[in-house]
Amino acid sequence: MKLLLICHGLAPGRGSEPGLAWNWAWSLSKDHQVWTLAHPEYREEVDAYLAAHPNPQLRIIWLHGTAWDPARGQRGFRWHYLRWLREAERAAADLHARTSFDLVHLISLGTVSVAPSFWKLGIPFVWGPLGGAQTCPPQLRALFGNERWREWVRVWRLRAFRYYPPFRAAVKHSAVVLATNRETLSYLEEAGTSNVHLLPDSGVPDEDLSEPPQRRDQRGSVRILWAGGFDKRKALPLAFEALAVGRGDVPLTLAVAGDGVERERWTAAARTLGVLDRVQFLGKLSPLQMREEFRQSDIFLFTSVRESFGSVVLEAMTSGLPVVSLDLHGIGACVPDSAALKVPATGSRAAVVDGIADALDRLARDPELRFAIGRAGWNFAATQRWHRRSAFMNGLYREATARRVGVFGENRVYSDGIGR
């Protein structure tokens, strides 16, 4: 097939959206001719990688969109992205007129809060993986401090956007939509999609998953690892509060990898709770340093209260590290119950903290349970390797194009105004 992928951020070896988009483009180019529209933020890295690893199946078209400068941070990014998307739609139409693509797939940013019109190309349009319809449980919104009002606005904005005509048109005319969590899946179904699948927005590079995990030696204390950006939705204070509860007799220490605007406030919270002497702030780490931290730790703790999925959880699982998380959003929907201790987030904040403390205590006291959950997590991560995700996507592509040509008659799937 000739595929057109829309990926704003694109870079090999990076996390988040640029790395996700790159892995999709690279994996799919093994079976298809792939054209990719992307912003040139990481162009030097991509050019260097392709110089060392030539790939005639992958073509990249760079689009600026606006004068937005990524070196200045995220200020103005939303306005830039919407403008960039419009430029990508014009470029896609021009490319399609000259190339005749079989399918277009919008991967970029993975949020329901946009209204793309790539479906107007008259070929199957695949959208996602998408998140963005998940919200923080009301009883935990105090974690956002003086910004908690933004979470209430988010709820009302999502309710209104569901009825926005351009968004409903994009949903209705998508051949396939991918959702990273149940909240987003339900949101898309209510907006009119008829073919939506659950799929995490993260994958595991094949080379990162080698031998199954082995039992780890029991030490005098148990080391818990937390990793993420220091913004309010990551909810690190829940980890401090659970540590302060002090369940069990096994000493617990918490290593925190990451940095950001909340560092000063969160450090003060650990001090106030009397656990700062058991918390080590590691700062922002490189991928190589993170792999070493996974090897040195006994438990991985994920406290985010609003997350599409959480790629760092998969990273921990590839190292055989048992995971404790809230039973929310992508983790709640996609990770098997055997592969993590998932704490219900349906009660009060105090009940959630008690649940986290109990889960940490169970794992701290039981090395065999840590090994069993870590092994189950590794098995789940194995199902998310990129060659398997690519094979899954190829099946969806074949299904989408078959509905358009051959099975139902050409353009039948778009009979309500697009391909007549």
Number of helices, counting only DSSP H or I runs of 4 residues or more: 14
The separation of the N and C termini measures 22 Å
Q: Outline, from the CA principal axes? A: globular
Integer tally of domains: 2
- The helix-strand sequence is EHEHEHEEHHEHEEHEHEHEHEHEHHH
Oligomeric state of the chains present here: single chain
Largest sheet: 7 strands, parallel
- CATH homologous superfamily classification of the largest domain: Glycogen Phosphorylase B
> What share of residues is helical?
40-55%
Strand runs, count: 13
Structural class: alpha/beta
What is the CATH-assigned architecture of the largest domain?
3-Layer(aba) Sandwich
Per the CATH scheme, the topology name of the largest domain is Rossmann fold
- Spatial strand sequence of the major β-sheet: 3-2-1-4-5-6-7
State mean pLDDT (0 to 100 scale): 90
Q: What Rg do the Cα atoms give?
A: 22 Å
Could you explain the architecture of this structure?
With 420 residues, this protein is of the alpha/beta class. It has two domains: 2-205 and 384-414, 3-Layer(aba) Sandwich (Rossmann fold), CATH 3.40.50.2000; 207-383, 3-Layer(aba) Sandwich (Rossmann fold), CATH 3.40.50. Helices cover 41% and strands 15% of the residues. It has 14 helices and 13 strands. The protein has helices at residues 16-28, 43-52, 77-99, 148-161, 165-172, 182-191, 237-245, 263-272, 287-296, 311-318, 329-334, 349-365, 367-383, 386-404, and strands at 2-6, 33-38, 58-62, 103-106, 125-130, 176-179, 196-198, 222-227, 252-257, 279-283, 299-302, 323-326, 341-343. A seven-stranded parallel sheet has the order 3-2-1-4-5-6-7, sandwiched between helices. Helix 2 (43-52) links the parallel strand 2 and strand 3. Helix 1 (16-28) packs across helix 14 (386-404) and helix 10 crosses helix 13. The protein is globular and about 70 Å long. It starts with a strand and ends in a 16-residue tail after the last helix. Mean pLDDT is 90; it is low at 405-420.
